[in-house]
Amino acid sequence: MEGRLGVLVGASTIGNEESKLLDFLGQQDVYKIAVDGGISFFINNNIVPDFWLGDMDSTREKAIENINKDSSFVLDDFLAKIKKKELSPIKDDTDMALAVEDAVANGCEEIVIFGGLGGTRMSHTFANVQLVHRFARKGISIRMYSETNTVQVIVNGSLLLPKKDNGFISIFALTDKAKGVSIKNLFYEYEGDLTNDVALGVSNEFCGKEASVSVSDGALLVIFED
Questions:
Q1: Are strands 51-54 and 84-86 parallel, antiparallel or unpaired?
Q2: What CATH number does the domain containing 94 carry?
Q3: The whole model's pTM is what?
Q4: Contacts (Cβ under 8 Å, ≥6 apart) of 37
Q5: Total domain count, the chain
Q6: What are phi and psi of 124, to 5 degrees?
Q7: Average pLDDT over the chain, rounded to an integer
């Protein structure tokens, strides 16, 4: 992996993907951001993030509820080590979007987001998909992980897929029309255009071959379902 990696952790529950998150955090030159309630993950793992931002609604109370019960852990001492920015709840962008902007401003060319999919508010998941699309258009690669899904966006480009014997992958147009779409070596192959009102690319499957997805003009949402 080249360049600085931004690792952002939001408030949605972290499940079995925690081991992958810890692997990312263990890499060199990582910029770590706790996004609002995502601070609970850092507290529970005694990892100090580089930055913590959000409107902080009930964040401290949630953190205390989930705190590691180790008697040597002092929450106030931990929080005092973190650069923090408290945001107004009345604003034109989401906490996660502002966290991505901060990561980019701090030299991150690639970003992974955990705790940004699922949860009880589908609106936040959709907002985060729009966010990934926005920054993909600026040349910033973002992947979002949940326990069962990985999400990324391709804009006027291609994605090589490693050989897998099973698993689902869905490919949707985000722009009105994604032109020159090529899907190779998946169960369903395709050459042509996709539109954002027909789910032709839903529930494709890996079939033991190295595969690829590309688009010549437009944006594709790619969802890996484990």
A1: parallel
A2: 3.40.50.10240
A3: 0.91
A4: 10, 11, 54, 58, 59, 62, 63
A5: 2
A6: -70, -35
A7: 90
Tokens representing 186 are 């998946």
Instruction: Extract the tokens encoding 130.
Output: 């729009």
Torsion sign across C-alpha atoms 195, 138, 55, 117: positive
In 63-124, at which residue ranges do the beta strands (DSSP E only) sit? 84-86, 108-114
Cβ within 8 Å of residue 46, ≥6 positions away: 68, 73, 78
| AA letter at 193 | D
> pLDDT tens digits for 44-96?
899 999 999 988 764 555 555 555 555 567 778 888 899 989 888 778 889 99
Task: From residue 182, give the alpha-carbon distance in Å to each of 60, 129, 191.
Answer: 47, 22, 5
- Based on its alpha-carbon atoms, the radius of gyration of the chain, rounded to whole angstroms, reads 19
Q: Do residue 131 and residue 160 come from a single domain?
A: no
Task: Decide if 158 contacts 185 (C-beta within 8 A).
Answer: no
Domain identity same for 121 and 98: yes
DSSP state of 140: -
The one-letter amino acid code at 18 reads E
Q: 68 or 155, which is more confident?
A: 155
| Residues 189, 138 within the same domain | no
